[in-house]
Amino acid sequence: MRDYALETTFDVKFTTRRFSTGAPFTLAGTPVISAYVGNSLTQITAGITLTVDFDGVTGLNNVRVVATSANGYAAGSNYALVITTGTVDSVSVVGEVVAEFSLEAQSPLRPTVAGRTLDVSAGGEGGLDWANVGSPTTVVGLSGTSVKTATDVETDTVEIGVAGAGLTNINLPNQTMDIVGNITGNLSGSVGSVTGAVGSVTAGVTLAASAVQAIWDALTSALTAAGSIGKKFADWVIGTTQTGDSFARLGAPAGASVSADIVAIKSDTAAILVDTGTTLDGRIPAALTTGGNMKADVVAVNAIVVTGSGTGADPWGP
User: Fold this and answer.
1) Whole-angstrom Cα distance, residue 29 to residue 85?
2) Is residue 121 part of a domain?
């Protein structure tokens, strides 16, 4: 008994013989071949074609069976092909079983597609089909399989959605991350940019120097909207066209230039040194009295008042 797959078309052959001599003889009497399934009394004639004296050979008969579900056949069933109408040399041969077959009922292992063979290794193990792993929704362990390291990835966008679950040791060098929800654990590596709403980041977070620089640049230059730290830093510390910046808080007039004012202060300082060293020094007498008192005018007064030798007018006169 041969086992076939459902929806298969196959052929079987049998020989009819004359009872008196045993020699092959033509099957006659408008012969009919029917298929019985199991112990059912139902005869299936659909999909069965009988050819007597096949290829011109007397007594050789061919039966073609199209075993499809549309013709009434089913998987997991056994069938017998029986002559239900016919004679040989005018003797009835009804009831003669000419062949038996089954449909997906006998072979313990068969391919999904009819006609295909099972690929096995030299040791007899079945070949592995990565595209057809059982229960693909479950975790498939590949601890004994070497996986090629991806080296040709330039830029990836990684979207991580986390709702209370912990992520540990994520290393995404130079990647763009859209982080939604809460992230716990350790983040390491060089992160190009982080976008999206971040619920919270807890535990140890290690960022490369380039990532810190990128964050600082974003805070001080990229964030220019009113109210952002970058805008406030520019307004309050560096000094922009905004009123109330740090330069204005020092009392400088509006529109003043720090560099120009420093040059002006330096010029005024040089002028003070000239006046102190030249003009003022020339006006101070060479000698002072004990205690540092200036005496030039007192001597002149003394000459007028005490000795009367002065020529000037009496300073205390009428």
Assistant:
1) 7
2) no
Say how far residue 212 (Cα) sits from the centre of its chain: 23
Residue 111 to residue 5: CA distance in whole angstroms: 9
Burial of 278 by CB count in 10 Å (0-12 exposed, 13-18 middle, 19+ buried)? exposed
* Domain at 22, CATH number: 2.60.40
Counted domains in the chain: 3
Q: Are residues 166 and 89 in the same domain?
A: no
In a domain, 301, yes or no: yes
CA distance 261 to 264: 5
Q: What is the pTM of this model?
A: 0.41
Q: Report yes or no on 84 lying in a domain.
A: yes
28 and 98 in a single domain? The answer is yes
Q: What amino acid is encoded at 221 in this protein? A: S
Same domain, 95 and 166: no
Q: Whole-angstrom Cα distance, residue 183 to residue 199?
A: 8
Residue 173, phi then psi, degrees to nearest 5: -70, 130
Strands (E), 125-195: 157-162, 170-171, 175-183, 187-188, 191-195
Q: Identify the domain containing residue 175 by its residue range.
A: 157-207
Three-class SS state of 286: coil
Mean pLDDT of residues grouped by 10 in the chain (318 residues)? 91 96 97 96 96 98 97 95 97 97 81 70 70 70 70 54 51 54 53 54 64 73 66 63 53 61 75 65 57 56 55 55
Cα separation, 134 vs 140, in Å, equals 9
**Hey, is 299 helix, strand or coil?**
helix
Residue 270 lies in a domain: no
